Amino acid sequence: MSDSHAMADTNTGIPSGKLGMWVFLASEVMLFGGFISSYVILRTGSTNFVVPGKEMLGVPLAMVNTFVLITSSVTMVLALDAIEKGNVKGLIRNLIFTLILAACFLGIKSYEYPHKWHEGITISSGLFGSFYYTLTGLHMLHVVGGMAYMGYLLRNALAGRYTVQSHARVEYAGLYWHFVDLVWVILFPIFYLL
Amino acid sequence: MRNVYLAVFAALAVLTAVTVGASYMHLARPQAIAVGVCIAAVKVSLIVFFFMHMKFEGRIIRWLMVAALFFALILLFFILPDLGWSCAVCFGGEGSPMIQGFTWGIAVLLSLPALLFGAFAFFIIRSIRRKNELTRDHSTAI
Question: What ipTM is given for this predicted complex?
Answer without folding.
Answer: 0.88
